[in-house]
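Bench log, entry 3. Co-assembly request; chain sequences pasted below exactly as received.
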Amino acid sequence: MHNFNSKFLASSHNRCYPFKLKPFIHCIHTSIAGSYDSTYHSNQLLNRLSKTGQIDDAQKVFDKMPQRDEYSWNTIISGYVSLGRLVEAKELFDGFSSRSSITWSSLISGYCRHGCESEAFRLFRLMRLEGHTPSQYTLGSILRMCSARGLIQNAELIHGYVVKNGFESNVYVVTGLVDTYAKCKHISEAEVLFKRLEYDKENHVLWTAMVTGYSQNGDGRKAIEFFRYMHAEGVESNQFTFPSILTACSSVSAHCFGEQVHGCIVRSGFGGNVYVQSALVDMYAKCGDFSGAKRVLETMEDDDVVSWNSMIVGCVRHNFEEEALLLFKKMHARNMKIDDYTFPSVLNSCIVGSTDAKSVHCLIIKTGFENYKLVSNALVDMYAKTGDLNCAYAVFQKMLEKDVISWTSLVTGYAQNSSHEDSVKIFCDMRIAGVRPDQVVFASILSACAELTLLEFGKQVHSDFIKSGLRSSLSVENSLVAMYAKCGCLDDADSIFVSMHVRDVITWTSLIVGYAQNGKGKESLRFYDAMVSSGTKPDFITFIGLLFACSHAGLVDDGRVYFQQMSKVYGIEPGAEHYACMIDLFGRSGKLDEAKELLNQMNVKPDATVWKALLAACRVHGNLELGERAATNLFVLEPMNAMPYVMLSNIYSAVGKWDGAAKIRKLMKSKGITKEPGCSWIEINSRVHTFISEDRGHPRAADIYSKIDEIIIRIKESGYVPDMNFSLHDMDREGKEVGLAYHSEKLAVAFGLLASPQSAPIRIFKNLRVCGDCHSAMKYISAAFNRRIILRDSNCFHHFKEGECSCGDYW
DNA sequence: ATAGGGTTAG
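Structure output for the full assembly:
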C-alpha cells in the first residue's frame, strides 16, 4: 500500500497524508482484522484525489484496492462526473452491482450538467424502475438542467412528482422549481411557490432566483421593486444577487438606483468579485455613464473581457461607434482574450457605418469565430440591417444551428429593406422549421403585415402571439396598432391603443397616420393634441402623419400652423416628405400659387413625392406650365413610371392641346412604358381573388357578371348615373357603360357580395387610385345592399357606409 | 460520495 509512484507523492501535500502518520501497529492490525481500515484510508485518498481533479491517480488507487465498498465506487464515479468524463463514469456505473440512490444521482447530475437531456431523463426513469427513490439531489440536478435549457414542460412533470412525493417543503427542490419557472418566463408560478415556501432570510439562492427571474423576464422595474423589498426585509445580497440586480438596472437605464446598489456593494465587501465588477461596468456603460464605468474598470486587477465587451456595447448604444472600434483595437493591442460576445458588439458599430464590415468579417473568419452562433447571428443581422440581404442570407444558410434570433434578423432585415413579401415568406419558413417565435420577431412580422395591409395574415399572427403566452411588449403593441390602423380596422387599433399601459411617440404616430389614411384627419389632429398633453414629444414622422392628415381633410390653416410649429417649437427641420404633404394640401385646395412658392422655398432637394403632389394639383387645376416642370422631373426620377406621362397628357387634353397630348403618349410608347393595369383583389377564406378590368378568368365569372348586372340595375334605381369621363374606350355610349361596369373594383365587390356573409364588411384592395365612377358606385352599393365596403387604393382608405364615403369625396 | 443562484449578443 506504500508503492505509489513519485509523481503522486510530489503532487500531494504531506501534512494531509494519512498513511505516514499512522503508527505501524495499525497496519498489522489491518492485515489481521481484514481490510476495513485499509478501505477507509484508501477511500479518503480517493476522495481527495477525485476532488482535486487527479482522477488518473484516483483510478490507480481504486484499481489497487483489495476491497471496495459503496463509498469507493461512488467517489470514483463522481470524480469522473465532475471532470465531465461521462463515458468512464458510465462504464464504472455499469460495472457496479450495488448502486444506490447516490450513485444514480451522481451520474444523472453529470448528464444534467452537460445538457444530455434525453440520457438524464432516461436514467431518471430507470432509477425508479430499479426501485431507488430520487432524492433532493436528483431532483435538484434535473431542475437545474430544465432551468438552463428552458424545458418548462419537463419541469412541470417534475413539479407533479414533487407534489406527489412530499418534496413540497424541501428548500432545495422548491428553490430549483422557482428558478426554473422564473427563467422560463412563468414568473407568476415562481411567485406562488416563493410565497408558499417557509420564509427564510438565509436562503439567498431563492431570493436571488427571484431577482434574476424578474430581470430575465424583461421586467427590470419588478426586479428593482423586489430587490428593495428584499433589502427592507434585511435579506443580504451576495456576489450572485448583485450582478442580477445590476442587469435589471441596465435594462431600464436606472442609473441612480444602480449607483445606490454600487454603494451597497462597497459596504458588502463583494466589490472585488469579477462578476460584480463586470456587471457594474455594464450598468454604467449602458446608462451612458462612461466615467463611472471607467472608474470601476480601473479598480479591476486583470483585463476582463466581459467588462470590455460591455464598454463596447455601451459606446455603440450611445452612438460612439468610433470609440467602440477604438476599444476593440485596444483589446487587440493588449493581447486580450476576445470571445464570442466581442464580435457582435463590434459588428453593431458597422451598422452605422464607422467600421468596415468586410474587414471585421475577415477577422472573424481568421480567428475562427464564424461558427459561433452569437457571432454568425450578429453577422446576419449586420448584413441585413445594412441592406446587403444576399450576404445576410449567405451567412444564414451556412449556419449549422439557426435559432429564433437568426431568423428574426433575416425577417427584420427584409422588412426594413422594403421586401415585405420576403419577410413574410421567411417568417412562414421559420414556423415550418419549428422555431418558436418570440416578441421581437412578432413585432417585426406585424410591421410587415401593416406595410402589406395583410389583414387576415396579420390577425392570425396576432392570435398566434396571444396563444404563445408571451408577455406583451411596447413594440408588439405598437406594431399591432399600426397593423390594424393601416389595414383599415380603426376600432381594433383603438382597442389595442386603449389597453396599452405605456405609450411612446411611435404608438401615437401610428394612430395619427392610421386615422389620416382612413379619411379621419380631424381625429388625427385630436390624437396629436392628446399626445402633446400626455407629455410625449412629436418627432419627424409624427409631423408627416399630421400634415398628411391635414392634406386629406383639406385643413389648410391647421396645416400651415403645424408646418411652422415643427421647426419653431420642436426644432425639426422639414424634409421632402413634409413639403410634399404641404404642396399636396395647397394643390388640393386650389392654392397652386402657395404650392409653387413653397416649392421655391425648399431647402432640401424635391423628391418624387413632391413632384407627384404638384403634378396631381396641376392636373386638377389645368396648370400646364407647372405640370410640365413636375412631369419632366419625374421622367428623370422614375423613368419607368407611366403616371407622369398619363397625367401630363391629360393636362394637355384638358386645356385643348390635343397634339401635345398625342405627342406625350407617343413619347411614352417609344420608351416602352406601359400603364400599369388596374387590379383589385379581395381575400375570402384565406384565399386571395384577383381581378383586372373585364376579367373573365375567375371560376365564378358567370355568377359575378350577372351579379354586376343586378347591382347596376339596383343602384340606378336609387340614382346612380355612370360617369363616362372615366371610361377608357372609344366607343358608343352603351359600350362605354359596359366597360365601366366591369372595372376591376366592381368585379371584386360583386364577388364580395356573392361569397361573404351579409354581416361581414367587404375589403377590397386596388393597386391604383380608385376610379371616380367606381367610387360613386361603391357609395350606392353600400346603401342598396346595406354593406360596409372598405376599399384601400394606392393612396388611402375609403370606408363606404350607408351611401357615404369616409373621404368625403375628397381624395 | 450526489443538489440550487450571477456578467456580455438580436
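Residues 220 and 251 of chain A are 6 Å apart (CA to CA). Residues 682-805 of chain A form one domain.
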